[in-house]
Amino acid sequence: MLSTTPTVPTDQFEARTGWAFKPEGACKGEVCIPLATPPGDTVDLEEIAAALQLPLVHDEAHDVWAIGPESIGGRTLTTAEAADLTLPRIDAGHEGEMFSLSSLRGQKVLLVAWAPY
Amino acid sequence: MWQAFRNEHHAAGFEVVTVALDTAGPEACRRFIELGQPEHPSLIDAHHQVAELFGVVNIPNAVWIDEAGTIVRPPEPAPAPPTFRHLTANIFAGVSEVPERMKAIMGEAMHIQSSPEAYEAALVDWITNGADSEFALSPADVIARSGPRSADAAKGAAHFELATHLELQGHHDAAISHFRIAHELVPDNFSYRRQAWSLEPGGDGPMERFWQGPTDDDDGAWPYDGDWLTDVRAMGPSNYYPTWQA
Fold first, then answer.
1. Across the interface, which of B1, B157, B159 has its CB nearest the CB of A114?
2. Can you spell out the DSSP letters for A47-108?
3. Residue from A8, A70, A76 whose CB has the most chain B CBs within 10 Å, to mutate
4. Of residues B81 and A46, which shows the higher confidence score?
């Protein structure tokens, strides 16, 4: 997740990373990590990175941060619960519309990654 | 690319979502979209979120997600149905002179052993039988079969996102520095490499972005340690893009 400030709105952090703040801590699927101080409206990137062992990289020249994914258990997936990927559409008639994977609940989905290179 | 298959099975409660991993944006994908005419959602992923959130490390890769939003197969090589091959052939139709480098790249790519028939059959089995399909994995198996991720690899994903961000902001040289770190920290992610390589100037015409390496006259200017042809030759096409395994 990118940010030009050291704190980000909590709802944006949850939507982009898949971590959800609950009374028991920061949770993703079945995994919950207790937090000493749960975030309010904003998440401090440095604090959350330390608590969830997420990498935080700052490009000082351009003053932008990127917080990376967890590596819990040494696998890319922490849970089999699919992240709610939300991206713009490029198919005809829908260009630019945001689309969330969760809108397809009730159907089987083949999520295909491709590239024109 | 999956349009015909999708139409055949859509009434059975099946949908396809394609995600183009490309920092170069929608315009770069346009001719493929126009040829494929997808009626299913087709998305653009400039920062490779599917690498971070699902573990996609090469393309094409696919993930199976059931009606409840649970992944039943993590990212894996996903050969497109035969119809897509005709489509790719159309992209290159009318190219009269194929440069030597492109001939060599296509030569290596021909050694990739994909198994589109087996993959398609497995997919149909899942669409028909759901959780009872032998190809639908348990949550524990899905996590176990998802790719490895070290703390370094996680950090590499953060560098990759900085790189794509800086590229989009017009800071190409700064982007290269972060791409290089990402390549070093996440060596098993081949789309991280292909993305960065494809943003460098290549040959001319419709194959430009497949060039992915130094051009004949600017050998010293290539900013990366590897390139498509060198890396694939070194690792072997079957390691670069493994055959799908049930």
1. B1
2. HHHHHHT--EEEETTTTEEEE----GGGBS-S-SBPP--EEEB-STT-TT-EEEGGGGTTSE
3. A76
4. A46
> Over the stretch A65-102, which tens digit does the pLDDT of each residue have?
999 999 999 999 999 999 999 999 999 999 999 999 99
Complex ipTM: 0.97
A101 occurs within a structural domain: no
B225 and B133 share one domain: no
Task: Give me B38's structure tokens.
Answer: 């997808």
Let me know if residue A53 belongs to a domain: yes
Range of the domain at B167: 151-240
Q: Which residues of B are less than 8 Å from A3 in CB distance?
A: none
**If pLDDT is split at 50, 70 and 90, which confidence band does B95 have?**
low
Closest CA–CA distance from residue A10 to any residue of chain B (Å): 18
Instruction: Choose the final residue of a domain: B125, B145, B165.
Output: B145
B197-245 pLDDT tens trace? 999 988 777 778 889 999 877 768 899 999 999 999 999 988 899 899 9
Q: How far is B16 from chain A (nearest CA, A)?
A: 5
Residue B187 lies in a domain: yes
Number of domains forming the structure of chain A: 1
Cα dist from A21 to A11, A15, A56, whole Å: 9, 11, 19
Residue contact A101–B65, C-beta within 8 A = yes
State the best of B29, B43, B48, B83 to mutate against chain A, taking most chain A CBs within 10 Å: B43
